Amino acid sequence: MPPIRTSLFSLFKAGPGPSSSHTMGPMTAGRLFREACMTLPREQLAQAVSVRAHLLGSLSATGTGHGTDAALLAGLLGWTPEECPPGLLCKLADAKAKSCRVELNGKAISAGLANIIHGQVHHNHPWSNAMTLELLDAGGQTLFSRNYYSVGGGFVQWDGWEEPELGEPAHPYSCMDELRAIARGEGLNIYEIMLDNETAITGMHRKDIIHKLNSLLDMMEDSVRRGLDAEGTLPGPLGVQRKARSLWRMAESIPSSPERFLARLNACAFAAAEENAAGGVVVTAPTCGSAGVLPSILHAMRHDMFLGDRAIREGFLSAAAIGFIAKHNASIAGAEVGCQGEIGVASSMAAAMLTDALGHSSHIVENAAEVALEHHLGMTCDPVGGLVQIPCIERCAMGAVKAFNASLISRGTSSSSHRVSLDAAIAAMAETGREMSLKFKETSLGGLAASMVEC
């Protein structure tokens, strides 16, 4: 298998929730289609009057609750997830009958929510989250079209897509066994391997990488703070009440340290996850739907365990390594492997981050990551009403608790007695995802999404 060439800042991205695959991905696809249209011959572009989009797979099934239509339209208007201003998606979603003006090299065409069609859930495209975007003439005939695929974590591919030209990693690896061998053979820590690879792949200077990592960590904490300050009802028909603030208040009233710590951890996970559900800015870690797990562990490391910034940053790089390996060998998309690929991988990453930051070896870091992932295997993705609220918010809290416990178990036992490797757990996740019914892959056609409706 080829080595991992993913940049840290492709895995960790800031943008609006509630879903990296259903919000950030379609926004990116819309922008890419706009840019592709601008490269068309002048005479072809002169005939264009509008854009039409077909959403397929779980984008069609749950796109309404995930803000997919508005995100796609925002991308066609030229916005990126990183630059998207607060409230833009809500504003676009509220103007359902309005057409927007899209400028293509001086040629103005129209685009609107009315021209976004929710198509088949079952289809033959290579990825579940598929979109077909078409540039139309006055008679509704297609002048240019392209299929795009939102493959999880905000990553987008398309027909004919090739991996971007990047530098060769300084320490090539494709799985945990190879990464551990590099650490052992070259006497390097995981964070040193990750920094060397990021420099080699992207050409960035180490000080710039560290600066961007610090910014991402601060953005994660900001999502927790905003969530803890907010109260009221989350958007959508479910009427879900925000709980983070009340959980934090309960934590502050508990005299017992262990129980107080656990309540604070839960509150922080709820806070970031509720911010995501409300369409606030979060960091994909590795997805929007799982964006409450790492920030809650991060908050605990800073404010309960009093770990220093360098230790946290080094742990964060170990988390990235776990996310890379999971994405490379399985998936981080709920539409591909269920929630085990989102909350499960996030919990695994968080366990690795904490264990590394506490100064443990790469072998113990791996064990912690494996324990956390193993106990999410088989988890379905069944968002009620297509919204990233039930059970997604509580699952972030449970993922955070499992991450902390996985670290405890691994730090308290001999690394040589651990029998299951992280690579084996990821292989099991990939196999389980392949065999999982489509109704359990972010389509809201089964599981809790169906049973709540039936009740």
Summary keywords:
455 residues; alpha+beta; 60s Ribosomal Protein L30, Chain: A; 2 domains; five-stranded mixed sheet; two-stranded antiparallel sheet
Written overview of the protein:
The model has no long low-confidence stretch (mean pLDDT 94). Helices cover 52% and strands 12% of the residues. It has helices at residues 8-11, 20-37, 42-46, 58-66, 68-76, 88-94, 176-186, 190-202, 206-229, 244-252, 257-277, 293-303, 309-329, 334-337, 343-357, 362-374, 392-411, 422-435, 448-454, and strands at 14-16, 48-56, 99-104, 107-112, 116-118, 130-137, 142-152, 155-158, 281-283. The chain is α+β, with helices and mostly antiparallel strands. The strands form 3 sheets. A 5-stranded mixed beta sheet has the order 5-2-6-7-8. Strands 1-9 form a two-stranded antiparallel sheet. A hairpin with a 2-residue loop joins β3 (99-104) and β4 (107-112). The protein is globular, with a radius of gyration of 22 Å. α12 crosses α17 (392-411). It has 2 domains: 20-158, D-3-phosphoglycerate dehydrogenase, domain 3 (60s Ribosomal Protein L30, Chain: A), CATH 3.30.1330.90; 176-454, no CATH class. The protein is built from 19 helices and 9 strands.
